[in-house]
Sequence to fold (261 residues):
Amino acid sequence: MSKKEQSDRVRNCLKLLGKEGLPRHIAIIMDGNGRWAQQRKKPRVFGHRAGVESVRELVRASGEMGIEVLTLFAFSSENWRRPEKEVSLLMELFLMALEKEVRKLNTNNVQLRIIGDVADFPEKIRIRIAEAESLTLNNTGLVLNIAANYGGKWDICQAVRQLATRVKQGELEPDEITEEKIAERLKLHDLPEPDLFIRTGGEQRISNFLVWQLAYTELFFTPVLWPDFNRDEFEKALISFSHRQRRFGQTGKQVEQRRNA
Ligand code: IPE
Ligand code: IPE
Ligand code: MG
Fold:
């Protein structure tokens, strides 16, 4: 696609959705790499490599459309249970992506953050993560969160542990623990909560992703395998989102009235 075709396409999509119809924050479980490779009689890592290309395309499209935050599940706290060989290949791929992509992300004004228990990663990766985060810290474009060794339950647990320490030190009473106090200590606390959740690969589950933050997120599941998730598929998810009425406990009529006020 030429540059001109691409920008026409973005413009058309935005016209269709309207600025209000666009999610501010999209969270994605990028699933189906292994099956994509198996269908081609290739080793699973072949699918993980192909998946990196889908990430590039998605980050580009999101930036062009003015999405504010993208959170991608790259490696869950449960993925350590996979065969050792696959885990180490995934680590290698992660390291390579950090080395190869970060400069370009920085040029494109993307702020990169890694969320998860990074202490479990090899030192080489931890150093790269710290470098990438500090390089892109002051960028003002898309915020790209990569969830690596992340688990939603871990996230809540580390927040609660911080509060428990304050209680022990006598700085906080147990009945002063509110939803807000927990939320303030979660990994994405300074960003808007996800408006749209996408899971590729056909499974319809959360798999310990952002369990707290997804409480009121619109869910979109597609059978498309992650390496096949392209702009067309992304636009389908955005269009589906633009047709949802987000009621947050209110009635449809109340929402209409608020919109027309
Ligand atoms: C998602 O694809 C990528 C990671 C979990 C790292 P999978 O590797 O889970 O692919 P399937 O689900 O086996 O097809
Ligand atoms: C979820 O995918 C984690 C990532 C995409 C990184 P999985 O493929 O590991 O999820 P389950 O175990 O099938 O639910
Ligand atoms: Mg999977």
In short: The first strand starts at residue 25 and ends at 29.
